[in-house]
Specification:
This protein has 15 helices and 17 strands. The protein has a 6-stranded parallel beta sheet, sandwiched between helices. The protein has a 6-stranded parallel beta sheet with strand order 11-10-9-15-16-17, sandwiched between helices. Strands 13-12-14 form a 3-stranded antiparallel beta sheet. The chain is elongated. It is of the alpha/beta class. The longest helix is centred in the N-terminal third of the chain and has 15 residues. This is Phosphoglycerate kinase. Its EC number is 2.7.2.3.
Length: 395
C-alpha cells in the first residue's frame, strides 16, 4: 500500500477522502474527534504544497440535498483546527466545486459538500457509481484515501475513484491498519475482547471469528441479555433478539469447545423504563424481574470484568456496557474504560459508540493505545472480510 511519501504532491490537486461524519446538534458539532483525526494528513499535504480537495459524507441524506446534513459547519471547524481558511464548495461536482478547486493555491484546502447528496456515491449500480466517480476524479490529479470509517463501503469516493487516479493511503488509514494487524497477527496474549452495544446481530461475524483467536470474551451492553436468555434466564423487558438465540447458543458451545473464557454479567442495573431518571436496582443477572429492563452492568460485573482485564496483554473493546448517555447507567462503561487504562495492555477502542463514550465521560484519550475512527470498518476487518476501500488502495 503506497503512502503519502510515495506521492509528489507539490502544486497538484489532491483529492482526500476523509471521514468527517460527526454528530451535529443543529449546526453545532458535539464531537469533533473524526475531524481532529483527519487533520494530520490534510496538514501534511498542504505543508508540501498540495492543493487539497477534501471530500466526505455526513449522515444519510440518501442522494437528496438536505441542509440538515450540510458539511458547512465541518468546514468551519476544520479551518479552526488547521489554522487556515477552508474554502467550501456548495455542491459536490457542480459549478461551485469546479470553481472552488480551480481557485486553490498551493497549500490551500477546500471541502466539497456532502458526497451523499449525489445518488451515484452509494449506488449499487456499477455504471451509475462509476459515472459519478469520473466526475469526482476530474477535480483532482491524485487521490489519498484517509477515511477509515468508510473503507468497508463500496462507494464511489472510496472504491471507484482510486482506480481512476494515482493513489495512496493517508496517515490515518496506515495507522488504523497497523493497529488492526496487531489484533489479528502474532497477537500478544492473554488477548481479551470486550463487546457491548445493543444487538448481537451486528456482531455475529466478528464473534464467530474472534472465538478462534481470543483467550477471553467479555459480553456486556444490550447484547448480553440475548446471551443470558440463551442460557435459560429471565431477562424481563431487557433488549432481546429472539431470532438470535440459536446462534448465541452455538457461540456458547463453541467457546466451551475452544476453551475460550466467555464472560457474561453477573448483576445488572434493572430499571423501570428506558429513561435517564428511571428507578432502578441492582439485581442478579440471572433473575431480572419481569417488569424491569437491564440498562447497565452492575458493580459485581464491573469488578469481574476488571479482574479479567488485569493481566491482559492485548485488549479490543467495541460497544458500551450500558446506556452511557444516561449518567445513572454510564458506570459500567466507565469501569471497563478505566480498567483498560489501568491494564498496561495494548488497548484498542473500536470506534463508534465506544469512542464517543470515552470522550463523553471525560476519560483521557491518551490512556488508550489507539482509538479507532471506524467502528463498522474495524469490526469487519476483525471478521476477516475484504474491505473495498483498502483493496482499492492496495491495487
Amino acid at each position: 500500500m503506497r503512502t503519502l511519501d510515495d506521492l509528489d504532491v507539490k502544486g497538484r490537486r489532491v483529492l482526500v477522502r476523509a471521514d468527517l461524519n460527526v454528530p451535529l446538534d443543529g449546526e453545532t458539532i458535539t464531537d469533533d474527534g473524526r475531524i481532529r483525526a483527519s487533520v494530520p494528513t490534510i496538514q501534511a499535504l498542504a505543508g508540501r504544497g498540495a492543493k487539497v480537495v477534501v471530500c466526505a459524507h455526513l449522515g444519510r441524506p440518501k442522494g437528496q440535498v438536505n441542509p440538515k446534513y450540510s458539511l458547512r459547519p465541518v468546514a468551519a471547524r476544520l479551518g479552526e483546527l488547521l489554522g487556515q481558511d477552508v474554502a467550501f464548495a456548495a455542491d459536490v461536482v457542480g459549478d461551485s466545486a469546479r470553481e472552488t478547486v480551480e481557485a486553490l493555491q498551493e497549500g490551500q484546502v477546500a471541502l466539497l459538500e456532502n458526497l451523499r447528496y449525489e445518488p451515484g456515491e452509494e449506488s449499487k449500480d456499477d455504471a451509475a457509481r462509476g459515472a459519478f466517480a469520473e466526475k469526482l476524479a476530474a477535480l483532482a490529479e491524485l487521490y489519498v484515501g484517509d477515511g477509515f470509517g468508510a473503507v468497508h463501503r463500496k462507494h464511489a469516493s472510496v472504491y471507484d475513484v482510486p482506480k481512476l487516479l494515482p493513489h495512496a493511503a493517508g496517515g490515518l488509514i496506515v495507522a488504523e491498519v497497523e493497529v488492526l494487524r496487531r489484533l489479528t497477527e502474532d497477537t500478544e496474549r492473554p488477548y481479551v475482547v470486550v463487546l457491548g452495544g445493543a444487538k448481537v446481530s451486528d456482531k455475529l461475524g466478528v464473534i464467530a471469528n474472534l472465538l478462534t483467536k481470543v483467550d477471553r470474551l467479555l459480553i456486556g451492553g444490550g447484547m448480553a441479555y440475548t446471551f443470558l436468555k440463551a442460557q435459560g434466564h429471565e431477562v424481563g423487558r431487557s433488549l432481546l433478539q429472539e431470532d438470535q438465540l440459536d446462534q448465541v447458543r452455538g457461540f456458547l458451545d463453541e467457546a466451551g469447545r475452544r476453551g475460550v473464557d466467555l464472560v457474561l454479567p453477573v448483576d445488572v442495573l434493572a430499571a423501570t423504563g428506558f429513561a435517564a431518571d428511571a428507578e432502578h436496582d441492582v439485581v442478579e443477572a440471572t433473575a431480572i424481574p419481569a417488569d424491569r429492563e437491564g440498562l447497565d452492568i452492575g458493580p459485581k460485573t464491573r469488578e469481574l470484568f476488571a479482574s479479567k482485564l488485569a493481566d491482559a496483554k492485548t485488549v479490543f473493546w467495541n460497544g458500551p456496557m450500558g446506556v452511557f448517555e444516561f449518567d445513572a447507567f454510564s458506570g459500567g462503561t466507565r469501569a471497563v474504560a478505566e480498567a483498560l487504562i489501568g491494564s498496561g495492555a495494548f488497548t484498542v477502542v473500536g470506534g463508534g459508540d465506544s469512542a464517543a463514550a470515552v470522550r463523553r465521560l471525560g476519560l483521557p484519550e491518551d490512556g488508550f493505545s489507539h482509538i479507532s475512527t471506524g467502528g463498522g470498518a474495524s469490526l469487519e476487518y476483525l471478521e476477516g472480510k475484504t474491505l473495498p476501500g483498502l483493496a482499492a488502495l492496495e491495487d
